[in-house]
Every structure is written in structure tokens, then in C-alpha cells.
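Instructor's aside before we start: the two examples that follow are unrelated to each other. I chose them only because their records fit on one page, so don't look for a connection. First example below.
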Amino acid sequence: MRSRILPDALSALLLAIALSVLASGCAPGDAPGSYQASNTADCLPDLPMTDQNGRALSLASLKGKPVLIDFIYTTCTSTCPLQTAKMAKVARLLGPQLGSQVVIVSLTLDPETDSVAKLHDYAERYGADRRGWLFLTGQPRTVDEVLARFRLRRERSPDGQVMHVAAAFLLGVDGRQIRQYNSLAVAPNTVVDDLHEFALTG
């Protein structure tokens, strides 16, 4: 079934829920939208995915560098482009560190629709076709298994609309969470500061 955009009121409600969940991990001194990680699971399991260029890879192969991950789908015209625009600002701030020292991953929430070609077009459309930034899809059951590592799941409203996930995570070199974010509220500078404080050694 083709995905459509959530009504604004429902999107706002979901964002409020995401904020309240993430805020439970807030500690004094945390910047707005940036929270302590509360999940110690390995979030980069040995599961097969495909990137926007048709390259097959295992999530586990990304270990060894910090990974910044968020969740999008290509038919979205509201929340996902805002998240991607924010990630693009993070990418610009990282400069040559993106790819060489840090990987950004955007995982589709709609693998039934998001083909390799659609992910490639989405990345180009929003200025996200950069070295070190992967847009990933896979079999629906594989995507579900990855999301479960983050204590998330794909959901649709009764009329088939894809539910947004307004969250992002910073993973360490071992694939375990270091920070979690409200991806609409956090400032790009905060994410980059967290990378340099908690994840990058050089």
C-alpha cells in the first residue's frame, strides 16, 4: 500500500511522545534534543542491507567508526525532509571527517516502497548524496529486526500511512549507543559536538 503523509495533528502527537520518551534519559547539562543513551544493545548486527547505489553490505561492517543513524522514507514530504536537511547540515560541519572518520546512515521505514533507485533519487533531491552517507533498505523483516535493536518498530495508521520516527542515534565504534536525539529538536552543532566529545579521538 502506498504511504501518505500523516495529518499534522497526528504528527505533532507522535513528536510529543518521542520527546517525552527521549527526555526520560535527559541529564543535567544535556543540550536540547540530545540525551544519554539508555540502550546497551549492539545496534549494528550482522544483517544484510543494500545502499542507494545498489551495494550490498552488512550493518556489522560499519563497526570501527562512529555511526549516526536516523529513519526516513522517500514518499514523505514533511518530517523526513526536515530530518534529512538537518543531517545534511551535520554532514557539512563534519567536512572531510564524514566517510573517513564518521558514517551517517538513513534507514528506510518503508522497504516495501523504497527501492535502491528511490533512495538514490531521495539522496540527490535533498543534497545528501555524499561520501560516507548511506541510505539503506532491505527485506522488511530485516528492517524490522534492525529497528528492534533500537527498541523501535515500523507502524502504520489504520489507513496505511507510515508513522514517522523522530529519533536519531549516535553509535560508537562497537555499534552500541552513545547518544540519542530528537531528530527535529537537536541542533546540528550539538550532534557534531557530541561526536567530538564522545566518539572521535582525533
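Example two begins here.
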Amino acid sequence: MLIQAPLPSLLSQRMACHVLNVARGTLRAHKARDNFCGPVLPQQHRAKRNACQQANALSIAEREHVNDILSSEAYCNQPPMQVYHQLLQTGQYLCSVSTMHRILREQALQGERRHQRAPQSHAIPRLSAATPNEVWTWDIAKLATQQRGEYLSLYVVMDLFSRYIVAWMLSRKENSALSSQLMQDAAQRYDISANSLTLHQDRGVPMTAHCYLDLLSELDITASHSRPRVSNDNPMSEAQFKTMKYQPDYPRRFDDYHHAQAWCEDYVLWYNTQHHHSGLGGFTPQQVFTGEHQDIAKTRQDALDKAYQLNPNRFRNGPPKVTHPPKIVTINPIPDDAEVPVIEKGVNFPTLKKAMENKH
């Protein structure tokens, strides 16, 4: 056998070794010994494992015997590991467990017999809001009580663009009927028009129940869900709950339902009207939700201009500018290097979202 170097440009080492029935380790060994260009003697050639008979391999009769035992009525429904130990404790040794697997695999007898759910692929939720009441996001938090093992459920619905809490509910249980009632009341309160709102949530039972999804369909509200076991697909609601539970006056455990209800009322009022949100440039959620932040920004800018005129040396980066809330708030924004399909003028964001979901 003669192997010449170099190999053709379109022929890989794997293909060459397959055609010549040579183990790839043999090719690497000859290249390492600088003997690659010379002839390879038959005694130096080591064929592929599956193309030659191993010295310690089972004979044909032994393999048939193992196959008959594995296919027998006593062991046909048992995996090789169970068969191996069952026979071994009765004083019988046929072969190793891996050999049993190989024999079954050659006879096409190995594999899952039960019905398996096909692998699922969930699209990445990509949401974008440029105005209030364009995207809402909501979640449920558990509030511990003084009685061990008893929790209250706090439903909180937020506006993605302004982080404004548009609706909330405290209950002793968690089910789809309460979530449906909450969403219906919120949609009526803010006069949500058809096909103008996207509601984002995770995949909990109240968020995926048929009655809840049917209500959203009747209200013409687009439902969006996080991916399974992905915690950062609903970051705004998670961040709001962390803000709540890290309040200095947050009780570790509430005395009862009325105690939790009173505390949550005070918290929601503070969060919407007094909490200067870092993600909104220091404005409160209510100011951004109502648009008051535009007039307040002018007042802030006047104060900064006066401070700069009095002491310009204190501002090393020049005249200070008021930080405005972001013009567009997104969840899982499209990467900059992604291939975005060409969108015609007038196509709304849900159409773009569906196009990207189909892509992924």
C-alpha cells in the first residue's frame, strides 16, 4: 500500500482513511515519524476497529447465544445493565454490558420503545415598546405569612415602557380565573383598543390556562410567553419584585391577608409616584406613563444650567445634560450582527417579531 502526500485539496483525512480502510491513528503516527511519504507495509497497517475481527471478540455462536437470551421472554423488556446483574447473581457471565449493547444495536433492538414527546423549540420573545400601553408584562410573587407553609399570591401587571404598575391583586390562591379577572379589569380601565397591546408573561399555570388565553383572544390582546426555564425572559417584572422585597420596611412574614394588603397598597403608591427609577433616568414610573417627565426634564435642565454657570469647574465633562428615559424599551433585543429581514414601510413590530421567531 502506498500513501502519497499531500492529499488532494477536496479529500479530507477522514475520507482517505475510510477509502483505504486505515485507522486515522495510523495516519497520524506515520506523519509524526516523518515516514508519511514512504510505503506503508502491511504489518505496519492497522485497519479500523469495525473492519477487523478483534482477538478477544465473541464468536458467532456466542453472539447468537447472547442475542437469544436478551430477546427471550424473561429479559426482552429489561435493559442490558439489569440483565447483566441478574445473570451474574445466578452464576452466569455472558459478556460485558457494552457488548450486550453492541449486539442489540446490530440487530436494531436497542432504543426507546415508549412514546416520546418530540423535541420542542421555543422562540425567543423579542418585545419592544415605544409608548405606554403598548406592551405589558406581569408575574406572580409569593408572600410568606406567619403561619409556616402558607403564602399569599401577589399579581402585578406593569407597563414595559414606563414600568408603571397598571394593575395588581393580592389573593390567597393562584389560578387562571383570578388572572383572567385582573386582565379584563385592567383592559377596561385603560380602554385598550383591539390589537394594540402585547401581554408578556412566563409559562405558569395561570398564564397558560385555556380560559385565560381565550379571554386574551376575545380582548384582541397578543399573548407572549417566556421560554421554559429561562429566568431572564421577563426581567422587568423580576426586577420590580426585587425592589419590593428589598424595601427597608418589607416584613419577612406578613401577619395575615389584611396586613399584606395594606402594605402592598402603600408600596404600589410609592413605586408609581415616588420611586425615582434608575432605568428611567431618575423619573418616576407615573411621570413617564403620563408624559409629565418632559416638562420635569426642562426644570431639571434649568437647575443644572444654573449650577454650571455658578461653578463650571465642578463639571469636568462640560455642561451637564439631563438623562431622559429610553425612547424604546426592549426585552431580548435583536443582536446587532443578526440578519434582519427587509421590512416594508408600515409593517408593525408584531410582524417583525413573527419573522424573527420563524428565523430562530
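The two ends are 49 Å apart (CA to CA).
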